[in-house]
């Protein structure tokens, strides 16, 4: 097992309901350490670039509009197998399919407003972390 880092976002539906601390508590309970964190309001250009991989999907426009509808908290999480561990604790994209106790089961409003983003691979995690954080921002 290797210690690794992943990238996480607490999405606008969760910041709007003042759930940052509750989401962080679930992450920490799962053994993930928040080694960098900041609250930002993404620009349209930032959200479009971040979700560029989904540009061809029918929900892309709505997703970008949602992601810039309020502040988000961008985070770097560290722990054993952090990428997979975070995906596990996030739960399925559609909260209707998410396991009990997962962040999306506990807090998500819909398949779109699903409270958190998490990197889906170590390679994407590195790219996504570098998009929002300098190396000196991350204190493990
Ligand atoms: P993930 O966040 O579980 O990795 P992705 O398929 O990468 O899911 O989708 C990125 C984000 O796009 C989702 O978290 C969700 O906010 C939104 N999304 C995904 N599928 C749909 C959909 O069918 N309708 C509306 N929004 C969606
Ligand atoms: Mg994804």
Question: Can you characterise this structure?
Answer:
- The protein is α+β, with helices and mostly antiparallel strands and 140 residues long.
- It is built from 7 helices and 4 strands.
- Helices cover 39% and strands 20% of the residues.
- 34% of the residues are buried.
- Residues 54, 59, 63, 93, 111-112, 114, 117, 120 line the site of inosine-5'-diphosphate.
Cα separation of the termini: 17 Å
Distinct small molecules bound, one entry per kind: inosine-5'-diphosphate, magnesium ion
Kindly state the percentage of residues in helix.
Answer: 25-40%
Q: Sheet with the most strands?
A: 4 strands, antiparallel
Number of strands: 4
Question: How confident overall, as mean pLDDT?
Answer: 98
Gross geometry: globular
User: Structural class of the helix and strand makeup?
Assistant: alpha+beta
Please state the CA-atom Rg, rounded to the nearest Å: 14 Å
Total number of helices: 7
Q: Which segments are poorly predicted (pLDDT under 50) over 5 or more consecutive residues? A: none
Q: What is the H/E order? A: EHHEHHEHHEH
Strand content: 15-25%
Strand line-up across the major sheet = 2-3-1-4
Short synopsis of the structure:
With 140 residues, this protein is an alpha+beta fold. Helix content is 39%, strand content 20%.
Distinctive features:
alpha+beta; binds magnesium ion; 140 residues; globular; binds inosine-5'-diphosphate; 39% helix; 4 strands; 7 helices; four-stranded antiparallel beta sheet
């Amino acid at each position: 097992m290797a210690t690794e880092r992943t990238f996480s976002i607490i999405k606008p539906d969760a910041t709007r309901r003042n759930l940052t601390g509750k989401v962080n508590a679930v992450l920490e309970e799962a053994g993930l350490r928040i080694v960098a964190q900041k609250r930002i309001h993404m620009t349209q250009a930032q959200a479009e670039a971040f979700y560029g991989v989904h540009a061809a999907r029918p929900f892309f426009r709505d997703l970008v509009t949602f992601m810039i509808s309020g502040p988000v908290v961008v985070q770097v999480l560290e722990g054993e197998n952090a990428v997979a561990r975070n995906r596990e604790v996030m739960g399925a994209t559609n909260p209707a399919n998410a396991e009990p106790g997962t962040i999306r089961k506990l807090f998500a409003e819909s398949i779109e407003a699903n409270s958190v983003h998490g990197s889906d691979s170590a390679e994407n995690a590195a790219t996504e972390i570098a998009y929002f954080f300098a190396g000196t921002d991350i204190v493990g």
